[in-house]
Amino acid sequence: MPKLLSSPVRWYLLALLVILVDIATKVWAVERFMYGPALQIIPGLLQFTYAENYGAAFSFLADAGGWQRWFFGAIALVFSVVVVMWIKRLPVAKRWEPAALALILGGALGNFWDRMLLGYVRDFISVYYGSWHFPVFNVADMAISIGAAMLVIELLFFKDKGEVTGKDGAEV
């Protein structure tokens, strides 16, 4: 395996990919939906639209007057530094945990980019059924959610079992 792919750099590259896909899809959503109608993907369930979130998850503190931009930005930055160090310290053979952390890191930095550049986060994926609407979200939010779910699965089902390794020390 090339040295690059056997180091923590591979996980940082995954985080970078999440950031790039997140930013690209947000640019697309702004161009397509900011002033236009929503696009029904699965009528009655899923559509692409455009929304601006000035708060945190589920618009928490969205109407707090502007200080939350810097507060949530600082939290994302500190958290990202912690995750970068966490990934760096993991054994090279681990795959599940650093992949989960890379998804969370990429998502956090994707939304950090919006928050610092624009003062809000651009969202465009809307899931709904009848009059029930889940808060509009984006690719960064999906990456964070999937990464968090992976960490929970790791903790619940694999943490106590220890690492399963082969003769060469690689995870099997």
Would you mind describing this structure in some detail?
By secondary structure, this protein is an alpha+beta fold. It has one domain. It is 53% helix and 13% strand. The protein has four helices and four strands. It has a four-stranded antiparallel sheet with strand order 1-2-3-4. Strand 1 (39-42) and strand 2 (46-53) form a beta hairpin. Helix 2 packs antiparallel against helix 3 (96-118) and helix 3 runs antiparallel to helix 4 (139-158). The radius of gyration is 18 Å and the shape is globular. The chain starts with 8 loop residues before the first helix and ends in a 14-residue tail after the last helix.
Keywords summarizing the entry:
4 helices, aspartyl protease, cell membrane, four-stranded antiparallel β-sheet, 172 residues, alpha+beta, transmembrane helix, aspartic-type endopeptidase activity, EC 3.4.23.36, 4 strands
Number of domains: 1
Q: Percent of residues in beta strands?
A: 5-15%
- The low-confidence parts are 163-167
Question: What's the SSE pattern?
Answer: HEEHHEEH
Major β-sheet annotation = 4 strands, antiparallel
Give the beta-strand count: 4
From the alpha-carbon coordinates, what is the Rg to the nearest angstrom? 18 Å
Cα separation of the termini: 15 Å
| SS class | alpha+beta
Q: Share of helix among residues?
A: 40-55%
Strand order of the largest sheet: 1-2-3-4
Give me the number of helical elements: 4
Give the overall shape, derived from the CA principal axes. Answer: globular
The average pLDDT is: 85
